[in-house]
Amino acid sequence: MHEAAKTNRLRTEAFRRMYFAGRVIDIGCGSDLVVPHAVPFDLDHGDAQTILDYLEPESFDCVHSSHCLEHMRDVRNALAQWWELVRPGGYLVVVVPHEELYEQGAWPSVFNSDHKVTFNLGKRSALSPVSYDIGTLVKALDGAEIIEACVQDQGLDYRLVRRRVTRFGRWLFEFARRRQSFFWRLKQRGFRVYRLNLAVAALSNCSVDQSIRQKALPSHRFRSWHENQRA
Length: 231
Description:
Radius of gyration: 18 Å
Order of helices and strands: HHEEEHEEEHEHHE
CATH architecture of the largest domain: 3-Layer(aba) Sandwich
Helix content: 25-40%
Shape: globular
CATH topology of the largest domain: Rossmann fold
């Protein structure tokens, strides 16, 4: 939730002036636009998988998407279509979940059942049968130049990251998912529940979705690649 806002806390004003100038579209934004002047594109506007059915190619100076690509049925095709929206000299900025920090070795994802793929960056071994190296996907885009590719794990407590893929581990992850859902509902009602969440996790030895933190740190579970320029 509010994924763009979390990542924006890491971005400087110079970054925003450089990459989010001109006409910007924010794919999968919900109510959390990356910049106020961005054009929103979410479920109400159409299917991001086939975004060229709704928008003209080369019509934006910047295409931004945070935590949407993992919901696409065909990741390669969706990314290629998003890239087609970028004008010559423009930028594509994408943030996706890190499979080691979000799914944590469990598949299907227990924290978001709609995730259709997982992502890594330069890993030789994948943690799911539907894992993609986001850097490799970007390099395949026609005319793309990777300006930056990075892991955003500021504020992440690696002691809470666990990989459990046994049957018992799957049960623990399922328990964790239900617990997170319960705590999210409490949080939405104004309760400060992160410490309680950690206590239950310690007792049950389960994984933790650290985005439940009341003052969630900017991008503690994101892997991202940034600012791909079309020449």
